[in-house]
Amino acid sequence: MRSNISIHNVIGESPWTVKVRQRILQVAGYHYGVLITGPSGTGKELIARSIHTHGPRAAKPFIPVNCAALPGELFCSQVFGHIKGAFTGAGQSTLGCFRAADGGTIFLDEIGELDFDLQAKLLRVVQDRRVTPVGSHESLPVDVRVVAATNRNLEQDVRDGRFRLDLYYRLNVISVHAAPLVDRRQDIPVLARHFLAKACVENGTAVKQLHPDTLALMQAYRWPGNIRQLQNLIERAVVFAEGDLLGPDCFPELLDGSDFPPSDARFHPGGAPAPLVKPASGRRSNQSDNGPPEPWIEPVGPTEDAWLTLADVERSHIARTLQETFYNQSAAARLLGIDRKLLARKIRKYRLQLPPTSPGRPARR
DSSP class of residue 42? Predict the structure, then answer.
């Protein structure tokens, strides 16, 4: 699979964007490993594909691998390949991602989620440039450039014994950091207009524009989901907007002050952040008596009236984590470091309200 993504797809005009485009061109011509770090949704795969496109391997395949989605033997089979009869159901031999990427680039996304024992097997392949398919004793040469990405702090994971030091240094010959959207606010109007034009063209709708107040609102927002969240909100607005000018009312998520930087209250309802007060009724203070229940966040510190219990703090932290992951319970459990079933029990225990179609929640019949 070839990549036609280039630095022209790295959109923006902030100092970070200008610098990262230069860095892509600077490192693309080499064969050394690249480690791309940064929060989820910041375009790490876009950077990886751009490096491949501008390098000498551009005519060869670019093979992405989601390390978090391939546990145990499935990872070995998918990435290293297997021979016929290697395991039950192996009716024929497969190349595996490394051999499929021969001459090109393999992109190991979410490398920080890879099991520790699999890291040793990956290190052997990256170091020796030879791969042994599952069920075989013969190692085969591969010529690939390895580009990896993670949203974790691998240096801390190395110190904590969760990531191999030798693999870290093999992958991190060249490093590129993908900055969060909150640190590159100059790019927000450019990206928003780009996603809006793209959505209109893809859906065959009339060309729409963003109201200046909407752009100002976007630049004040914290964007926990980064570029992926921005694109999501733009596409949703295109579907539901009635006119050709998208005002702030088309983006109700941006009017919720919980995701604004604490120091910027310009666009917070009422002009300033609401005080952190624990509602006596056990729900958000601005919730209508007749309206449907909705998630609410308790204060994270003491108030004049009451000191939070440990259960209060846990409930608040779980609720915030669910918000940050857009109510994806698997992702929230991973961030909290607990089993997904335990998270589900705590959601029931604290009676946290979830959207009817939140990820990981069974659909209502």
Answer: S
Q: What is the pLDDT of residues 327-364, one digit of tens each?
A: 888 888 888 888 888 888 889 888 888 876 555 554 44
**This prediction's pTM:** 0.69
Phi, psi of 204 (to 5 degrees): 65, 30
Domain span at 358: 276-365
Is there a domain that residue 60 lies in?
A: yes
> Which residues fall within 8 angstroms of residue 105, CB to CB, at 6 or more apart?
3, 48, 51, 52, 55, 57, 60, 61, 62, 63, 144, 145, 146, 147
Number of residues assigned to the chain: 365
What was the pLDDT predicted at 159? 95
pLDDT bin (cut points 50, 70, 90) of residue 286 is very low
By the 10 Å C-beta count (0-12 exposed, 13-18 middle, 19+ buried), 339 is classed as exposed
| Residue 147 sits in the same domain as residue 252 | no
What whole-number distance in Å separates Cα of residue 148 and Cα of residue 323? 28
CATH of the domain at 324: 1.10.10.60
Same domain, residue pair 156 and 67: yes
For residues 159 and 297, membership in a common domain is answered with no
Query: 257 with 325, same domain?
Result: no
pLDDT digits (tens, 9 = 90+) for 55-90: 999 999 999 999 988 877 789 888 998 888 777 777
Q: Scanning the structure block, which residue is given the tokens 């089993």?
A: 339
| Choice between 301 and 41, residue whose per-residue pLDDT is larger | 41
Q: Are strands 174-177 and 34-37 parallel, antiparallel or unpaired?
A: parallel
